[in-house]
Amino acid sequence: MDFVDVAKTTFAAREFTDEPVPDDVLYRIFDTARFAPNGGNRQGWKVVAVRDRETKKALGELCLGPMRVAAAQTRAGEVYWQSVTPSSINIADAALDESLPIAIPMFEHLEDVPVVCIIAVDLKVVASMDQFLDRVGVVSGASIYPMAWSALMAARNEGFGGTLTTLLAAQEPAVQQLLGLESHEAVSAMLTIGRPPKQLSKLSRKPVEEFVFVDHAKGKPLTS
Ligand SMILES: Cc1cc2nc3c(=O)[nH]c(=O)nc-3n(C[C@H](O)[C@H](O)[C@H](O)COP(=O)(O)O)c2cc1C
Fold first, then answer.
1. What are the phi and psi torsion angles at 129 (to 5°)?
2. Tens-digit pLDDT profile for residues 143-179
3. For residue 223, is it within any domain?
4. Which of 118, 180, 200, 220 is least surrounded by Cβ atoms within 10 Å, i.e. has the fewest?
5. Residue 102 CB–ligand 1 contact under 6 Å
6. How confident is the model at residue 132 (pLDDT cuts 50, 70, 90)?
7. Per the domain annotation, does 55 fall within a domain?
C-alpha cells in the first residue's frame, strides 16, 4: 500500500475474523516497527506476543476493571481516567462492580483475538525527562508509542489491523506477574492484532486548519 493510504486508513480494529496472524506476518510487522524513533535510540521496548488462549483470557479479564472505572466516571459526568481533577467515584469499588457496562465487547472475549501484543518500556534505559514534574509522567511512553503505531500501520499494510490500548497499564503488577516482566518494565500498550472483517477507509479526524497555527497558538490556521 501507499504510505499515505496506510497512514490515513489505519483505524482502530476491534473485530477480527478467525484467521490467524502467521508468525512470518507478525515478524514482518515488528521488523518494520523497530525502525521507529525512540529517545537516544535506546530501544527500550519489549513485546510479548500472546497467542495462548488462557493468557489472552486472563489479560482480557484484567482489562475489565479499568473499563468499569471508565463507565462509572462517564456516568458521573467525568472525563474517564483523566489525572488532573480528582474523581468523585471510588475507583477500587467501581473496578469490581460487575453491574457497570463494558463498552467494548472485544475485551470480554480477548481470547478470540488472534494475537495480543503487550508492549513494555524498560524504565532503566529510557530517559524520563518529566520525572521531577508534579504531574503524571508522559515522556517515558513516548519512546515506545511511535513503534506501537508503526506496528499497527505495518499490520494494515499486510491487510491485518488492530487497536492500541493502554488499559492494562492500570493493572501493571498483575500483567508483569502473568507475563514474567520485571518491575522496571512498565506496561505501556496492548495491541490486539488480527484480520478485520472489513477495512475502513474514511476515519473521522479534525482538519489541519483546526489544530495547526502559524507562529502563535492564536495565530492564523495553516492552510494549503
Ligand atoms: C493512547 C491510546 C489509548 C487507547 N486506548 C484504547 C482503549 O483503551 N480501548 C480501545 O478500544 N481503544 C483505545 N484506543 C484506540 C482509540 O480509541 C482510537 O485510536 C480512536 O478512537 C480513533 O479510532 P479510529 O482510528 O478507528 O477512528 C487508544 C488509542 C491510543 C492512541
1. -65, -20
2. 999 999 999 999 999 999 999 999 999 999 999 999 9
3. no
4. 180
5. no
6. very high
7. yes
104 is a domain residue: yes
Can you give the CATH number for the domain in which 66 is found? 3.40.109.10
Q: Is 191 helix (H, G, I), strand (E, B) or coil?
A: strand
From ligand 1's centre to the CA of 215, what distance in Å? 30
Distance, CA 165 to ligand 1 centroid (Å)?
6
Please report the pLDDT score of residue 46 as a whole number: 98
What does the pLDDT look like over 19-73, one tens digit per residue? 999 999 999 999 999 999 999 999 999 999 999 999 999 999 999 999 999 999 9
Q: Write out pLDDT tens, residues 2-23.
A: 999 999 999 999 999 999 999 9
Q: How far apart are CA 154 and CA 31, in angstroms?
A: 9
What's the CA gap between 194 and 12, in Å, rounded? 11
For residue 204 the three cell numbers come to: 473521522
Q: Which amino acid is at 195?
A: R
Q: Are 47 and 170 in contact (CB under 8 A)?
A: no
Give the mean pLDDT of the chain.
Answer: 97
Specify if 101 maps to a domain: yes
Given strand 115-122, what is the order of strands in its sheet? 45-50, 115-122, 185-194, 161-165
Instruction: Compute the Cα dihedral for 162, 168, 173, 174 and give only its sign.
Output: negative
For CA atoms 21, 194, 39, 131, the dihedral sign is negative
Write out the three cell numbers for 151.
Answer: 506496528
Report the nearest atom of ligand 1 relative to the CA of 14.
11
Q: Measuring CA to CA, which residue among 1, 14, 49, 11 is closest to residue 194?
A: 14
